[in-house]
């Protein structure tokens, strides 16, 4: 019985969409079959006139059919082969003859039934019926037909698995596997149809029916592509990924001239690959290559901006993005030979678009979360995550605080931050450059070519960001900034926490692993407050204290030396990175990086830790007033004045050739305030000595009339700097209890150490410092000491005037590096007289200094009476303490005095407990100018006194009477700078001295002392 192959012309209105109507019993009668066959023949004839049989379908349909064949090729299995063998056994002789035709003819012959063929299954009849309907409708309205029809394969799979047998064994009785083979034959149909028409002359019906089946196969593929129901629909299961929408994969296979069956065998289904799953019957193995489905080329404008380094959001075009038809992958890798995307089981080489751009459209439903790039260069392949697939690694709160200038932990938001982001280890790079047209990252990892590593702009804050996977600690980098005029500049990171050692200038990615051991020190730090505690400071220039030593080597020597001398603190001259060693650190370029000359940041932490463990506080010089003009650092950082003031009159420092910070800009204030907290929190610094405060406070500092502009009130005060210093002090003290800030301020500005909320006579709140260098005392006292003793009577007030204002601020008495360089001579060399007198004057001066109200600071080398000026090139003259040196005892004697002064000082509260309280000081005699004698009492909180007497003349004064409190029964000498062990003449008062009931100097009792020449004597109650 001839199978029924021509269903009625109209679909059954009761048949649900997506199914094929089953044949009714009436349709199986011979009469009905003949009538139906006539109708079908007529319709096919009309269809041929409208579209000749030999004319190929549109290219996209062919390509889709080929892709469909690829997806189905992997699903061949034994059950389908067995079914086909049974079908082959039932072939009629005529069908066997047809089966011997050429490959293209075989495909048609397999579809053409003969009168002797076996009876078709109901499902096959339904397929044939639907095919005629689809063919007729397709000629009139292809778009409409594509929208209405559903895949025939869906109904077929209800009966048999969608596994195809080899094409050569296809029988007349069609199985689902035969239909799949028919799909494969479509790619060759345009040529095959003409050959079939000639050889199948007596079998017109079979030929036309084969044409109808061709139409079914083609339209099935088209519908499958449109409805995203590929080979998994035939199998009843499979991946959920889409198929290409534009036949991109088919085009690539065609361009290689690979037969459809071979292509199907070589490629795995794209959807299964996207999920990282092998298809049925596909063995597990390495990612299989998947052809790119189409073009994902960049817009010319985006391409130009990326090439010129002016793209503000490269992440919106680079990386992986969902687009119609799949996922577009774009990579920008200058000098790469190829770029391949690997995602799970997908491996696709992107198209080379030139200029380092590689793009491709892959048939994936979603953007894979863990894809990688294999970037091939000459001689190597670099595997990496795609930096442009990540979300911003900087949070909205960080951006908000940066925009407001209130990010107190700015170093955690800007700069290079190693981290794990979205499960991937790498480094986040961020930089503030609001005037830049573009910012790129250059470093050792990209051979200093930042073209392929552009950063994105994060809103209106001026911050640019890029997370680079695989980059970690130790990588060198800089920011390549495109200025407004299109020119480029390569800049070190302003927030770099580590740098190269000068003269190299690159920033280095840094991650600290240091574990602190100073918890006990931090717990007791600041108790009592610094201005009510012993506070004697040894100022050190680390690079020259022991030239050649690293931070860790210094940690083995410096704490022991300072502790032995009894100093409570060390003050480190600027540790922050600076390019010119001759600036001693006062022209900073790396505000967040300890200088690399001596080691790493963790090495510096080790030094601080060891000092703390030795009981020594660590102060650090901090320079927020100005910065150098180096073109790789902060000056016009993004092409415009940024960190410096935009007004040249306010930006250029007239004395040092540097640039002053714009304290009125909130982001610049934030940069500096956060920097102050950074050193205290990350490096456990106990205090900051702020350099050049006076140059910040006054608009006319070192400027002539016409070179400065008054403030909004017509005054000379720099209101922006005042606000900055107040904010800095308030923030540092709030976040770091127990620390101290110290101002190097040389003018009479009111309220330097007054709290910020207390308004002074000038209308300003206090600046909020803890201590202030008493520059007036230093200048006056040194001026007096440089005079010959015979002339000192005329300068007596220079030693006493400091007590007029001693309690207006909390003072430090500084003999710093500034006083022993640039022709000023060392401290001992300033003194008049011969070598013995110079040392005697120095010892007397140090004794007077340690007894005077205020804290003490002494620069290195002065503690052992170095005769030469300090030089950063060779440091202190340690050889003076070599026992082999003839005058070694003279220098050692002065150092022994400093040790004893510190020891007695620390154990005598009268010398430090009431430094800021006027009731802690009383003159005994301050007007003995003719005698060159100064005598005063210091009191502690309990009223216990210490008597200090200085004789600045070169003569011994026997029986020198001084008025003293009557309630002290006896006094004994605790320090005499003329003692023999210090190198003096050993004129001393060895026995306790008892007061006499003779009033003197306005007191009811007095004592008589022997005053040694050029010496200071301290006495305490016995």
Short summary of the structure?
This protein has 1022 residues and is of the alpha+beta class.
How would you describe the overall organization of this protein?
Helix content is 32%, strand content 18%. The chain is of the alpha+beta class and 1022 residues long. The longest helix is centred in the first third of the chain and has 24 residues. The relative contact order is 0.05. It is built from 32 helices and 36 strands. The chain has an eight-stranded parallel β-barrel with strand order 18-19-22-25-26-27-28-29.
Task: Fill in the keyword field for this structure.
18% strand, alpha+beta, 1022 residues, single chain, disordered N terminus, five-stranded mixed β-sheet
- Helical stretch count? 32
Strand content: 15-25%
Major sheet description: 8 strands, parallel, barrel
Radius of gyration: 46 Å
What topology emerges from the helices and strands here?
Elements: H1 30-50, H2 59-73, H3 78-89, H4 93-99, H5 103-111, H6 122-140, H7 142-148, H8 153-156, H9 176-185, H10 189-199, H11 204-227, H12 231-235, H13 248-255, H14 260-266, H15 270-274, E1 288-289, H16 300-308, E2 319-323, E3 326-332, E4 338-343, E5 346-349, E6 351-354, E7 357-362, E8 372-377, E9 380-385, H17 396-404, E10 415-421, E11 424-432, E12 438-443, E13 456-457, E14 463-469, E15 476-482, E16 488-491, E17 507-508, H18 519-524, E18 536-540, H19 542-545, H20 551-565, E19 569-572, E20 576-577, E21 590-594, H21 601-613, E22 617-622, E23 626-627, H22 648-651, E24 659-660, H23 666-682, E25 687-690, H24 693-697, H25 719-735, E26 740-743, E27 771-773, H26 775-785, H27 789-792, H28 797-800, H29 802-805, E28 811-815, H30 827-830, H31 835-851, E29 855-859, H32 888-906, E30 921-928, E31 933-939, E32 945-951, E33 957-964, E34 971-976, E35 1005-1011, E36 1015-1021
